[in-house]
Amino acid sequence: MSTTQTQSAPSTAVPVAPAVLSLEARLAAVEAAMTVVLDEAAIAYEVRTAHIPIDPVDLDDVVTLPLTPALQPSAPPASPVAALLQRAQQRLLINGWCAGSQVREDGARCLYGAIRIEAAGDRSLEARGLEVLMDAIRADFGDADSVPVFNDRWADGRVPMRILGQAAALADNRGQ
After folding, report:
1. Among candidate residues 116, 126, 111, 117, the one with its CA nearest the CA of residue 160
2. If you write DSSP's letter for every residue of 29-62 in order, what string do you get?
3. Range of the domain at 27
4. Are residues 120 and 34 part of one domain?
5. pLDDT tens, residue by residue, 34-72
6. Are residue 91 and residue 164 in the same domain, yes or no?
């Protein structure tokens, strides 16, 4: 009895080096994968929120306001000093605030410069406005020597504008 055995030769496969992708090809592959993930997330969001009722917005009902805070006070102050301080605050809101000078080339003013221009040459009104402003400054900060020194301490006009509003309220409360 003869047995024929067939032996197969052991296969020795030659390893193939992985293909090297260019940067553009790798970026395209990542973008395609992210697109799939984002599409799946969008569908999941739609499914999860489908039961939430949505009322359409009538654009005629939307109120548009200027980007700056209310430019007109709600009620004009009864006292002339309070009115002066409010006008100075409005001027700073419109024209801008500055430090280091009374007025810049672009029209921005410091606290003192805004009060001075709004007093329109009335030195008595200007002095009373500066006095009330110093009272408001001392109430919150206590250590300022003058309005210009206080004004120049700040990098932006947020705090000086707030103090000017507080001074206007103080003058109105005092009836000045």
Report:
1. 111
2. HHHHHHHHHHHHHHHHHHHHHTTS--PPPPGGG-
3. 22-54
4. no
5. 999 999 999 999 898 888 887 776 665 555 555 455 555
6. yes
* Sequence-ordered list of residues with C-beta below 8 angstroms from that of 164, at least 6 positions apart, any chain: 85, 88, 89, 92, 111, 114, 133
pLDDT digits (tens, 9 = 90+) for 95-138: 999 998 899 999 999 999 999 999 999 999 999 999 999 999 99
In-domain check, residue 167: yes
Q: What is the pTM of this model?
A: 0.57
Q: Verify that 45 and 91 share a domain, yes or no.
A: no
Are residues 94 and 49 part of one domain? no
Regarding whether 88 and 41 lie in a shared domain, the answer is: no
Q: To which residue do tokens 């001074």 refer?
A: 167
The structure tokens listed for 58 are: 């009538």
